[in-house]
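RECORD TYPE: inverse folding
INPUT: structure tokens
STRUCTURE:
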């Protein structure tokens, strides 16, 4: 008798092949049989007739580094079918750390990922110095999913150089570079899945300084990349503004050419097409190079409970901004308050003067003025700001924009936003596209998912608690692109599933998961595809010390299975915590390396990519990665 049998489901097995009706038998923590009909019974059975059966989602871009200390369920990702999460992204994390310097890493994480520092201070149980010691501490805990960690450039640089020297344009010495490279190798040998770095000016600490590593030299980056290579396994993760420029390309090309280790990236500025074609070329040549793409626009959520809203620079709102939400809402219900607020202009001068006078301020007036202008540009781009709706539509039409609604109603954009944000006791949200939204279509995502090298990424689960709510992305990738999309072509279900299972698992050398195949881990979702949806984002206060975060629930997950155990039924946790810390590359008897590229792809498709590179080199088109980035 099998431990568990899933019967009669439409199996989308993660390989990219067409779905098929079948049964799955599970014994211990592995899939023991996949067949059109399994006669032997199971101790427990799930009738999946009319349901999708997929591998559990492998989310490779999360920031639960602190939350692992207090939340074994890693919500909200576990609500959305995630069975493996990789963290330590974007160069931030909590190891290595010298005793007494923990606060520096907390303020880095708070600044970059908008996770309340008070929650991190209260919730993290420090008890390590080195990265191996950090992994040992996590290994003692129980979780609903498997966790993998990378060592981040921020903590690494501050540990070696000291927090007083690790930021801004301070070059590491040769001795310091060698030490950092050694620690990268040591971390991977202890079980880290790789090394991560942030090279974007969007990532700053709470004082506005660029995070450590942003301006590190090519020599330092080369040494750290080959610190990964020296370990013989692992993946380098980079978020960068300069991937298409020589400062990155010089060492990246050398690493990709000489190393058999992985590379995955998110590009935040510059010529994304050039970089994508570079990655596609080398993927087709057999390299594990994987650009990550979110399945929807990175969206800022403006609301009266959010970290950012369009009224924050207005005097009337500033008078009440410090009050609890319920008190603010009562005041804002008064028509006189609304009229006074909407009659005002933003008061940038007093905000600039206030920040200049702060004791910890290190910025000039000009720098603070630029920050204020950035804030204003983010909140006044009305053509790509939308009423989100329930369920949310992440590919809204032009007529759904704040600008269009304002024009149709004959009222100001700010009044449209105020009225919408006041609904549901002042909890409704405005969805503001942060990445370019040309022609009100996600055609760039559609093209990106057509690449062989691309993977689903960028959910940022656990991060941006007060402004972004994208941890639900694995759910909306399916519901939007395979079922609901109206603005363009739908994407085949089997391709979408592969992008967030097999392909993401292979990105980090996790060859024991991501497919429904005999001998692989029994990480499985059973999904009612017709009911698969996400809720309107809501603010909850369940972090340590009552810290806030935006979350979304999901409907349609009939069951989630982790290592053969049912961890969720109809969206409710069962209490089972079979998740493990992942230490390094994972193999099984049926798979131990990345899938071989097909003969067609490594010949005909490769030639087409080279032709595309030649065309793009001379085409000189412009591309923007975010609404505040420069064209290139």
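DESIGNED SEQUENCE:
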């Amino acid at each position: 008798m099998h431990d568990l049998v899933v019967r009669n489901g439409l199996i989308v097995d993660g390989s990219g092949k067409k779905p098929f009706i079948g049964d799955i038998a599970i014994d211990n923590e592995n899939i023991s049989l996949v067949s059109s009909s399994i006669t032997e019974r199971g101790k427990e059975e799930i009738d999946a007739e009319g349901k999708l059966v997929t591998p559990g989602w492998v989310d490779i871009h999360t920031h639960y580094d602190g939350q692992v200390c207090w939340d074994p369920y890693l919500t909200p990702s576990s609500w959305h079918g995630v069975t493996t999460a990789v963290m330590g992204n974007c160069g931030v994390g909590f190891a290595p750390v010298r005793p007494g310097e923990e606060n520096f890493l907390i303020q880095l994480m708070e600044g970059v990922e908008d996770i309340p520092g008070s929650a991190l201070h209260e919730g993290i149980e420090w008890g390590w110095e080195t990265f191996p010691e950090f992994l040992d501490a996590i290994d003692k805990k129980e979780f609903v999913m498997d966790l993998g960690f990378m060592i981040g450039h921020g903590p690494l640089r501050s540990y070696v150089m000291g927090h007083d020297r690790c930021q801004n344009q301070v070059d590491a010495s040769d001795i310091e570079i060698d030490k950092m490279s050694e620690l990268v190798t040591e971390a991977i040998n202890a079980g880290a899945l790789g090394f991560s770095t942030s090279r974007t000016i969007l990532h700053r600490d709470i004082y506005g300084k660029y995070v450590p590593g942003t301006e590190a030299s090519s020599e330092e980056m080369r040494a750290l990349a080959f610190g990964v290579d020296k370990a013989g396994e692992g993946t380098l993760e980079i978020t960068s503004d300069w991937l298409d420029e020589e400062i990155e390309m010089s060492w990246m090309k050398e690493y990709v050419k000489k190393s058999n280790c992985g590379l995955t990236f998110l590009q935040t500025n510059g010529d994304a097409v050039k970089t994508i074609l570079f990655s596609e070329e080398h993927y087709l040549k057999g390299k594990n190079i994987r650009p990550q793409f979110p399945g929807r626009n990175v969206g800022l959520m403006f609301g009266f409970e959010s970290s950012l809203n369009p009224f924050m620079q207005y005097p009337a709102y500033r008078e009440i901004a410090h009050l609890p939400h319920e008190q603010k809402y009562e005041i804002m219900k008064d028509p006189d308050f609304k009229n006074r607020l909407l009659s005002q202009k933003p008061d940038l001068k007093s905000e600039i003067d206030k920040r200049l006078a702060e004791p910890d301020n290190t910025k000039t007036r000009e720098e603070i003025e630029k920050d204020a202008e950035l804030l204003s540009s983010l909140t006044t781009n009305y053509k790509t700001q939308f009423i989100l709706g329930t369920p949310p539509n992440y590919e809204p039409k032009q007529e759904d924009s704040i600008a269009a609604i304002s024009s149709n109603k004959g009222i100001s954009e700010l009044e449209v936003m105020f009225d919408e944000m006041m609904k549901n006791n002042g909890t409704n949200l405005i969805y503001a596209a942060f990445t370019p939204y040309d022609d009100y279509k996600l055609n760039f995502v559609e093209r990106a998912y057509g690449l062989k090298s691309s993977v689903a990424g960028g959910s940022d689960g656990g991060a941006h608690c007060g402004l972004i709510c994208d941890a639900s992305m694995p759910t909306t990738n399916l519901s939007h692109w395979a079922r609901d999309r109206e603005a363009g072509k739908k994407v085949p279900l089997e391709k979408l599933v592969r992008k967030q299972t097999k392909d993401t698992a292979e990105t980090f050398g996790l060859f024991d998961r991501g497919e429904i195949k005999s001998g692989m881990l029994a990480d499985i979702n059973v999904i009612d595809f017709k009911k698969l949806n996400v809720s309107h984002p809501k603010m909850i206060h369940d972090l340590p010390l009552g810290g806030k975060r935006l979350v979304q629930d999901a409907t349609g997950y009939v069951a989630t299975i982790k290592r053969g155990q049912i961890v969720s039924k109809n969206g409710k946790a069962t209490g089972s915590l079979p998740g493990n810390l992942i230490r390094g590359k994972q193999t099984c008897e049926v798979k131990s390396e990345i899938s071989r590229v097909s003969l067609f792809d490594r010949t005909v498709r490769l030639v087409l990519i080279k032709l595309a590179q030649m065309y793009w080199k001379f085409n000189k088109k412009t591309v923007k990665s975010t609404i505040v980035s420069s064209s290139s």
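NOTES: DSSP finds 21 helices and 24 strands in the chain.
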